[in-house]
Amino acid sequence: MTMSLENRRAFVMGVALAAGAAAVVIAACSGTPRPRNLLFITLDTMRADRLPSYGFSGVDTPALDRIAAEGAVFEQAFASVPLTLPSHASLFTGLYPHRLNLRDNVATPLAPEFTTMAEALRDRGLMTGAFVASGVLGPSRGLDQGFVVYNDAVAAGCSSAPRARRPANEVVDEALKWIAEQPTAFFAWVHLYDTHRPYQLPSDYQGRYDNPYLEAIAFEDTQISRLIAHLEARRILDDTLIVVTGDHGESLGDHGEDSHGIFIYQEGLHVPLIVRGPGILPRRIGAVTRLVDLMPTVLELFGVAIPEIDGVSLTSFFSRADVDDNLEVYAESLYSQRFGWSGLRSLRADRYKVIEAPRPELYDLHTDPFEERNVFEQKPQVGAAMLERLRAIGGPRGQTLSHRPGIDRATAERVGSLGYVGGGSQPTRVVSSNHEDPKDHIATFNQMMTLQVQNAALFQHRRSGCR
Asked: What is the phi/psi pair of residue 236, to 5°?
């Protein structure tokens, strides 16, 4: 029997209400409060050490400061890859990029056989809505799995060509409309992109600080405050689990990289992770954690069974002050293979971090947190053992990235218009050997990125001026 649209909506609403009631019963029996709603905010290209909640004093972020003061701040959270699409896919599935076979922004989409956080929570009875700011995360890229509503940046506006991005205020406008319509449990994913080059900020934010990256942070914080104010006005703030994190960092010139995508040093992988919600006490957590741990953490807090994945639940950190487990952190970037250079992989275990490269690197992060002294030759046994462990986790050395984009021409052009080299209709290739170390070519990459960003800014300026 085929149900009408009205009946389908009534059925979904009934399931959601029943699930909400079940959550109350479970919480009453266990003594542990469960959240009713989930607000999941991902801040694209957000480097942790540029936020006041992580010790930075150069920008004001009152909304994020409040969430941090009232929740748990993970001081050492790391992404698996410094690129938007594979990092979000890894975050929402709890699986490393090589397990998903999704390695960069123009790879084939997330395959339907992988279970996403949205699918698990939708089946739990939550209404699911996604509000994303970048065409890199368009619905054709696979992250729409499990979302009843997937609102992205594709509105054509004044031309037939879809936009490649939109500002935080527009994203939050759409998210607030949808959240206001939800009378019961919901999962809202809000993705903000303003800290990604080329920067496009409202005039009243330009010139506030000494660089546009900080101005973009301040702008996003203002929009986050609107979300918090709405939840507070509806008196559902304390029933809502709020997760704020980044998909990856930004090099900002460190190690010679102007932006992100090639290197896998700390500045490109260290991201904020702040969690506020029922039963979560304010605290700072210094143990090393990963974005792949977010899916199992959220599912456990909502009472959902955790599938077999790479991540582990972090819920023990919310109730105990003596947990100091440091997890192994696997990371990779094969993006450099699009230019003919070697891909990079890394593993952090306790104090050491190894980077598998044509010239391998080993850092003691306890004494050298900024990765300035490569001690691979001084500690060959440590380096060799860590490389062996890395290959056990990530597979044998020599994995290659397909140079044929797994996206259609229109999507490829949108990705290219966002400043990603190699995101056009044809992958960019530089004449060199895939055995060459990206460290020797970072200046070339920066030059290509600068040109691509300039072209992207010109493209977006023309679109913003159309009538």
From this structure: -120, 10
Helix (H, G, I), strand (E, B) or coil at 259: coil
Each domain of the chain, given as residue ranges in start order, spans: 11-321, 331-464
11-321 CATH, one of 1.10.760.10, 1.10.10.10, 3.40.50.2300, 3.40.720.10: 3.40.720.10
For residue 319, the model assigns a pLDDT of 76
Residues 64, 223: Cα–Cα separation, whole Å? 10
CATH code of the region 331-464:
3.30.1120.10
Burial class (CB in 10 A: 0-12, 13-18, 19+), 461: exposed
Beta pairing, strands 344-349 & 329-333: antiparallel
**Tokens 């449990």 correspond to what residue?**
185
Q: What does the DSSP assignment read for 36-49? A: SEEEEEEETT--GG
The list of the chain residues with pLDDT below 70 reads 1-32, 154-162, 320-324, 398-434, 453-467
What contacts 265, CB < 8 A, 6 or more positions away? 251, 254, 255, 371
Burial (CB count within 10 angstroms: exposed 0-12, middle 13-18, buried 19+), residue 366: exposed
Q: Which residues contact 75 (CB under 8 A, 6 or more apart)?
A: 54, 284, 285, 286
Asked if residue 49 lies in contact with residue 55, where contact means CB atoms within 8 angstroms, the answer is: yes
